[in-house]
Every structure is written in structure tokens, then in C-alpha cells.
Amino acid sequence: MSRRVTPRTDTIQDIDTMIGETATTNLSPTFKARLLEYDDRWGYFEVTKNHSKRKGLNWGKYNDSAGQIMEIPTQMLRSLTWLTIHDKVSDWMDALGLSEWTITTEAIDEKSVVYEEGVPDSDQYFVGVQIDKDKMKACIYHDRPLTDEYIVHELLHVKHSEWSEDQVNAETEKLLR
Ligand SMILES: [Zn+2]
Q: Fewer CB within 10 A of the terminal residue: the chain, N end or C end?
């Protein structure tokens, strides 16, 4: 039914599975880009912002280029470093000062959540977090791919459990700007 997300995949077999995923490129460790599509010759990437707050590098160096499209030869796609959910969650845990926590993610079957009648199709998805404050553990459950936006949103619930949904939404927007 539900399956645990493995923290790391070492080889990616099929390029189709990379569409929508983010890679770092060999240009610079601070550079991140998301694969939009590919053809026989080129993979087309959109440059994305790097929000890491880790010490040592100017992580936001390329953030002004966010949204720009760049091409990387299709034959090179498999050798790029693709960021896993685990990479993304731990980056945001660092950025939000949650490094002491143990935070896991779990993909759930979309059919396992029942929605009330009248809920529009576009709202029929589930992303939520279960928090154990005493043990400093949390698990993000999701039935669609976890984007930066979902990750930040759920981690803010962990960090500020007293915040309202509106506060979390506003801060998420601010952090992703
Ligand atoms: Zn929420």
C-alpha cells in the first residue's frame, strides 16, 4: 500500500523519470536546475533558486538567473547529480534550523485518502506531516511528488507548531521568493 521513499538512488535508469527533477551541474555546486523536457540531443533545464544556508559557499550566486532555460546534452543527463527527496528535505532542514530533528518522508497511495463530496479534483491531494515533538521526529506523508513548496510548508509546521495555516503559507511564500 504505502512505500517508504528510499533516501538515495545511485543510478537512474530512465530519463523520463528525471523530468521535473532537479540536478546540480558540474558548472558549480551552487548551481541547480530542473529538467523540463528532452529530445534526442538536448535536455532543457530551468535554472532554479538555491536556498541553502549552509556555511562556506555563496549558494545564492545564480539566483538572479532563476527561470532561465539552459540545455545540457541528453547523453550527459545520467551523469548529473540528481537531488533526491532526501537531499531536498535535509537542505531545508538545515536552512530552517531543524538539523536536530529526524524527518522522514513517506509516499502514500492516492486512493488511500477519501475526500468529501464537492472537493474539486485540483484539491484532491494529500500532503501532511505527523510530528512527535518529544522525540523530535516527524514524517511527511504525500501522495504527489514533494516540491520545495510542500517541503518548506510542512517543515514550518514542525518548526512553529503554534502557527496558523495562513502564517505558514505566508512564510513559505517569503522563503521561496
Ligand atoms: Zn499546512
A: N
